[in-house]
Design brief:
The structure is a homotetramer. With about 425 residues, the first copy, chain A, is α/β, with parallel strands linked by helices. The first copy, chain A, has two domains: about 325 residues, Aldolase class I (TIM Barrel, Alpha-Beta Barrel); about 70 residues, Sandwich (Immunoglobulin-like). In chain A, helix 9 packs parallel to helix 10 and helix 10 runs parallel beside helix 12.
Chain lengths: ~425, ~425, ~425, ~425
Amino acid sequence: MTEKEFRTWAPSAPMGWNSWDCFGASVTEGEVKANADYLAKHLKQFGYQYVVVDIQWYEPQANSSVYHQFADLAMDDQGRLIPATNRFPSAAEGHGFGPLAQYVHDLGLKFGIHIMRGIPRQAVAQNVTTAGGYSARDIAANNICPWNSDMYGLDMSTPGAQAYYDSLMALYASWGVDFIKCDDIADSKLYGMHRSEIAALRSAIDKTGRPIVLSLSPGPADINYGAFLQEHANMWRLTDDFWDTWRQLKGMFPVAAKWAPMVRAGNWPDPDMLPLGAIRQRSVDGGTKLPHTRFTVPEQKTMLTLWSLLRAPFFLGGDLPQTGDELALITNQAVLGMRQDITEAHEEAATDTLVTWQAQSAAHHYTAYFNIGEDEITVQAPAAPASELWDGTALTPDQPLTVPVHGVVLIEQQ
Amino acid sequence: MTEKEFRTWAPSAPMGWNSWDCFGASVTEGEVKANADYLAKHLKQFGYQYVVVDIQWYEPQANSSVYHQFADLAMDDQGRLIPATNRFPSAAEGHGFGPLAQYVHDLGLKFGIHIMRGIPRQAVAQNVTTAGGYSARDIAANNICPWNSDMYGLDMSTPGAQAYYDSLMALYASWGVDFIKCDDIADSKLYGMHRSEIAALRSAIDKTGRPIVLSLSPGPADINYGAFLQEHANMWRLTDDFWDTWRQLKGMFPVAAKWAPMVRAGNWPDPDMLPLGAIRQRSVDGGTKLPHTRFTVPEQKTMLTLWSLLRAPFFLGGDLPQTGDELALITNQAVLGMRQDITEAHEEAATDTLVTWQAQSAAHHYTAYFNIGEDEITVQAPAAPASELWDGTALTPDQPLTVPVHGVVLIEQQ
Amino acid sequence: MTEKEFRTWAPSAPMGWNSWDCFGASVTEGEVKANADYLAKHLKQFGYQYVVVDIQWYEPQANSSVYHQFADLAMDDQGRLIPATNRFPSAAEGHGFGPLAQYVHDLGLKFGIHIMRGIPRQAVAQNVTTAGGYSARDIAANNICPWNSDMYGLDMSTPGAQAYYDSLMALYASWGVDFIKCDDIADSKLYGMHRSEIAALRSAIDKTGRPIVLSLSPGPADINYGAFLQEHANMWRLTDDFWDTWRQLKGMFPVAAKWAPMVRAGNWPDPDMLPLGAIRQRSVDGGTKLPHTRFTVPEQKTMLTLWSLLRAPFFLGGDLPQTGDELALITNQAVLGMRQDITEAHEEAATDTLVTWQAQSAAHHYTAYFNIGEDEITVQAPAAPASELWDGTALTPDQPLTVPVHGVVLIEQQ
Amino acid sequence: MTEKEFRTWAPSAPMGWNSWDCFGASVTEGEVKANADYLAKHLKQFGYQYVVVDIQWYEPQANSSVYHQFADLAMDDQGRLIPATNRFPSAAEGHGFGPLAQYVHDLGLKFGIHIMRGIPRQAVAQNVTTAGGYSARDIAANNICPWNSDMYGLDMSTPGAQAYYDSLMALYASWGVDFIKCDDIADSKLYGMHRSEIAALRSAIDKTGRPIVLSLSPGPADINYGAFLQEHANMWRLTDDFWDTWRQLKGMFPVAAKWAPMVRAGNWPDPDMLPLGAIRQRSVDGGTKLPHTRFTVPEQKTMLTLWSLLRAPFFLGGDLPQTGDELALITNQAVLGMRQDITEAHEEAATDTLVTWQAQSAAHHYTAYFNIGEDEITVQAPAAPASELWDGTALTPDQPLTVPVHGVVLIEQQ
């Protein structure tokens, strides 16, 4: 009863696929379906279930991860953004994402979309009448997102602002949306966290009666508001966009450490998507034009281990039909099992070269040794019976273990 | 030759009247003329010459100092704001401020207007074609003023942005504008100082061939860019808006002290308008509804003395036809003469209760004792012959002098 | 095993008495004993057990809460501070706090002391030889506490620094110390949190084999290091010193809300002592000379409710033999029971006038309505059976409840 | 009369030699004399006249630029530091720097020393009686320098603190000191600028009757206190210590630009010593062990040009008897003449690769083109008759001029 019901909607950290890392702002219906098909066939049995269409699905001209400043957007007569039908043909005739959500649901999966905080700039320019008979200019706030020109914020002190968010969530719920990633809200760069709009979204979703998981972006979210986030959202971003560079992966260690105490069922601090496999098919972000992840195999295991210890969301960023060797890593049952079962995890120690985490489940104790330096490190196996979790190899008591550069050794004990 | 020519356009600190403190965003042509008439008749001989129409002259519905969010504005087909003809009838038929400027010039005065940094939001919404054939959406920057929703900034890295500012200054020069107060540019609150746009304005004005004095707002301008400002503008604001409270006046002392070294001919650091007399006729700012200044006479003398020692601009804020007893103060020839003649002034000492400034002219040495505490203070007259400048009274050597609470004693020596 | 053992030493949040609020830096042995006697007789059965001697017990001349700059201190030949025997006669002949600790233990209570981070200034001046044969000047760091001149920090990169802390904890353990409040370490004002010294203290205490509870001061501790604190300390301060003003009590609400997720067994975020009863007997802090708390009864209940919901330490600040009406409040079994039993608590909502917290125990659900405004507020009792916890009165379903100004209504439901 | 007299003591920016860059904290009397001899013989005629002994001359064991934490210092019975006689034999028998100053004066030069803000730590430990009968512990402030452990600050609100500074300056004046470089005062890292101690030094020097030039260190001084500095000191540092790296030299451009308006006779913003020639003879700073400057010839000319345009102090950092090819640069009469004669200089324009300064003297106009990029740049000579100042070559009107990488072309026009 005191428990927030929305936390039960994501009892374990969500897993799935998100279109941003591979297609930027430009994913199409066909690509979404192809990724959903792959997810259903190869990954669903491991817990992956969300298919999320990221930003600009309402912009007809979107063609990469570069935003078109002041672009015209697809919008209904209440100022709500709707899918661009040139990119999402099934959305024609006012169907919105209903047909695509149905396709995803029929695969036994869940469907998610990205939204930007606020009301479209063009709704304000046209001064459309919004839900409840308010006018866009009266409910809009004179604040913007600094990196995307599509929206104005909403002034939650005006009566129509909540009505607008309510109408937005009602529309998206009517389509069958299961997951909302709201952007420009957890750390808005110019204004910090938009708490009044987060609270408004929470309220609007709860009113729909549909268990829509709420994810907040971008980071870094301010941990001074960690308790607030726990009361209002299922996921929130811990850093700005994460890409496949060692510098960023290394930088995630202290961030994960500090947020670990805030993890609990239904509240999943989010270190962002997993930039694995065939990312950057049309996205041009990440500082390179390479169409595949630059992470080495040790780095991939490091990332997946850290995310698992944090019990973080697993959203795959690559084009799934092109999945390669990383398949074995993202479906490692032992590691996924640890991620599921641990109830406490924390950074035990950290030097410039070695970071140690520990965690506990009902049955096991886990220790991860991360080599964040540039030379191999040797650590020692426990005196008691143990195994290395990624490989499943049994360890001899006290045996020396080599931790490769940027890699990890993950030990499970009884 | 190395000297910036624009500095010769304001060889002494500008004096005049500005519509903001009395009429907020809503001044009308009739009110401007009435104030110009008064200025010409009663104040011109003391050096007052600028008549400045402050913000929102392009907004038909403006009626106080409260901004109407996302309001429709009067604009020409190149995206340049023009006077609202319901408020400025002489601007009809495309005359802009030409006729009003002519009226002011005929009085032997100069005419100024306020502008906001950037390009109107509605020019971007309509995507108008701007000077040189560019489109508004291509030259606009996705940045805004946080306290007024009328504009977007300009992206000076795009080729059409300078062309737009050039076209704007050309239009305003064609009207006969002598003074531009550009707002949201010296301290934009969200983004700091917009230096590239300041440089663009400097360039645009210089191209007009008309000696338009450039004043930058709001403050606090960052003194780390004081040298930059000296190279680009005639005036810049030292604080946010100044109103008639002792707290603000007291707060100006350290600010004036720190900027004093940056004063030189053509460069006039600006502590803002003088909120004297019949201010707040329709402006609702300043934290009160009182239609006259709350400054006591000692405070008025303190303000005028500090502004004079700083050689600061004197822009009267009250409705001039209602000028009362303050007339004697703002026309005190001795004080105005000191302001004109001193070439160095500085804060000599400052305690919690007493601030001392000194200054030097070719003929005289000046000392001001400001009582910033809440009890009368006694200071001593110089040993040498001297007089109190406000009263013109001769002082006996070493005589005790009472400095009233919040007041000043201003001493002139040979 | 993964669990930090030190957390088991404080399985519930410590309760007791601390000498600071009443005696400042000047408490004497007799006063400590008198307070311990009272605690044993009247409060032990409610869970109060710690008797803590606060700062400057090593300074012979200490006589209030004002520090004597560069004072001479009682110190042993290894540079460790020892009790001033003029104030603590039983410490003579090298007994340290052993006899006083024994006295407290004999009452069935526990004994605690305050220490300052680092090594005494005078040990550095004399360059004493510290534990392990190091010299004070080699292990000291050139950093200080800005509000107390007694110490230098320790340079944990030098080999002798840990040895010094080990020797310090060994000495204090040998006296029978059960609780250490280390100051100038959680927020050192000049340098932020001294994490390497916190880790050194953790290690030094663990080596003693004695379960000494570790409390870190002053605040505000930075929640970005909340996870670090959970791994190293039992208590840490959330704000700077807390006194009996409504401004400070009101300010604790958002702080408590943000730290609530970090509370767990053995980790007790600390909003500071309870300034109740006969405080300021010789302390001159808190902004008044009044020798009793200024908190009204509603404010006292508000404070105790908020501290209880946060499951915070309860350290009484007043001279206990002078305890008055507050006795009923600090021994309210129902409230203390809630504090003991709840496993989750959070701020549910907050406006400018009303703050609502909720919590849950195995058997009950709790709601607290805090009136932080200046007018009475009426809230509604639950529809289900409930009672007001402070009074024990049964509530009629949906009955209106008056929350007094600065007061609280605390409701328990099945 | 209003003019501060101390400004007349340094009517042009001081030039000379300082021991820090070559000998760190460890210079000896012999080395000082050898450098003074060279200065007198080879550089005096170009305006170089100050010989300055930098930090730790009171520390017997000083042997490089590394400080010895908590070292014992040579001190008189009033707590004033005096020369270590093992390093400065002529200081024996209480002569202090008198004999060395006399030696320097006899060469027609001036003598300077470095001091640290405050009172020695060991004077506080010993609680010596200071001038006027105060005790060190009463006048000391509990604040320190974070990078040198020798001193405590002075609490200027205590009556004896000014007396101490007065006694210190009196002693140093009695030795014949002409120049004081006071450290840990202009930007104290922990506490910002120590304005009350700066004012105390100003007062103490003025009382001596000796025209001792006052230089404040380290930087960056805060330009918000630029006016204050003008009223109290002759020189103040603009950055932290400057060494022979392009990164630091490049970084000086915006700093010089912003301080240029604060330059006036007697007030000389200071970009620090010139790390030319045989620096690092025993100093181990600057990030290398190389015993000579790493600056290329173009970089040396860039540095000297920028310093000259700023009319900055010229203090040579190398061991003068080892002076090499840089002699021609530091004695270029045309450049030194420009430095002497210009009355206004400013940064005219700055891009990522090209910085342009302009200046004016009675007879000439100067333009400097600095290439701060990594490729050669071509600029154009003026249309009017002109010459390149470093080389003295006459320029053909409009001829193309190559600015070498990191170098400068400095043009003089009539």
